[in-house]
TrEMBL record:
The keyword Zinc does not apply. PROSITE patterns: ABC_TRANSPORTER_1, ABC_TRANSPORTER_2. Coiled coil: none annotated. GO terms for molecular function: ATP binding; ATP hydrolysis activity; transmembrane transporter activity. This is ABC transporter ATP-binding protein. SMART domains: AAA. It comes from the Bacteria. SUPFAM superfamilies: P-loop containing nucleoside triphosphate hydrolases. The keyword Cell division does not apply. One of its GO terms (cellular component) is plasma membrane. InterPro entries: AAA+_ATPase, ABC_transporter-like_ATP-bd, ABC_transporter-like_CS, ABC_transpr_LolD-like, MacB-like_ATP-bd, P-loop_NTPase. Keywords: ATP-binding, Nucleotide-binding, Transport. It holds the Pfam family ABC_tran.
Length: 230
């Protein structure tokens, strides 16, 4: 089944800047896909439209079989809170909330039971076990980025979109975050779509989509175990 399907996505800003010029792509359930391409090629726009954070100017977006482009803003927001996790490039942490309060927020917004233990486990997995009560302003860029990762994972969303999730991390933290995203996909059946500039990060994905000038310019698939055995 398809976790996410994009049909002929177009996005024009201010009626002049074409960010997406007809992208059709499918992200199957239980796959980890990297999206690469030069700066300005439309990667962030693609992610935001696919996640229902922004509306394309043309084309359709399906998440788990539901056409989110056919719903109104209220329904789209509600749907997103139930199904989607988003790791923002600039983290989007709320400055007035502590680390733990930031991470718990998606559970509250989705009206789910707040499982503090689970929240703390995810933060501990990301090396933030001693930062629960800190405010974002007290954290380094890398720590903030890991809080953003924890917040996107805590509700176990069906689909996780990650915009440069390792951009602020040192090599070791980056590898830990990438291994966690792989575990979400390969041990828990989640689906991850990750924009990255970093070939090391892309190597953790099962396939890589390349964008250029708002269009798909190529695709690379990691060899399957079967293919390797041949
Ligand atoms: P990438 O993530 O690959 O760097 P973006 O999706 O951010 O690409 O941008 C694609 C194009 O759309 C660029 O030309 C960029 O300047 C433009 N763009 C992105 N966001 C906006 C916006 N909010 N308003 C106007 N133009 C935008
Ligand atoms: P756990 O013992 O909580 O299953 P794992 O290390 O096996 O921990 O899981 C890795 C991470 O993946 C955890 O932080 C968890 O929050 C997250 N996770 C597990 N399942 C999903 C899912 N279906 N979607 C998104 N995230 C998930």
């Amino acid at each position: 089944t398809d976790a996410v399907r994009l049909e002929s996505l177009h996005k024009t800003y201010d009626e002049t800047v074409t960010a997406l010029a007809g992208v059709t792509a499918t992200f199957a359930t239980g796959t980890f896909t990297a999206v690469m391409g030069p700066s300005g090629s439309g990667k962030s726009t693609l992610l935001q439209c696919a996640a229902g954070l922004d509306r394309p100017t043309g084309g359709r977006v399906f998440i788990g079989g539901t056409e989110v482009t056919a719903t109104n803003d209220t329904a789209m927001t509600k749907f997103r809170r139930q199904r989607v996790g988003f790791i923002f490039q600039d983290y989007n942490l709320l400055p007035s909330l502590t680390v733990e309060q930031n991470v718990v927020l998606p559970l509250k917004l989705a009206r789910r039971k707040v499982d503090r233990r689970r929240c703390r486990d995810v933060l501990a997995q990301l090396g933030l076990g001693d930062k629960l009560d800190a405010r974002p302003e007290k954290l380094s860029g890398g720590q903030r980025q890991r809080v953003a990762v924890a917040r996107a994972l805590v509700a176990r969303p069906a689909v996780i979109f990650a915009d440069e999730p390792t951009g602020a991390l040192d090599l070791r933290s980056a590898q830990e975050v990438l291994a966690l995203l792989r575990a979400v996909v390969h041990q828990h059946g989640g689906t991850v779509v990750m924009v990255t500039h970093d070939p090391m990060a892309a190597a953790y994905a099962d396939s890589v989509l390349f964008l250029a000038d708002g269009r798909l310019a190529g695709e690379l698939r990691a060899p399957t175990a079967d293919a390797v055995a041949e």
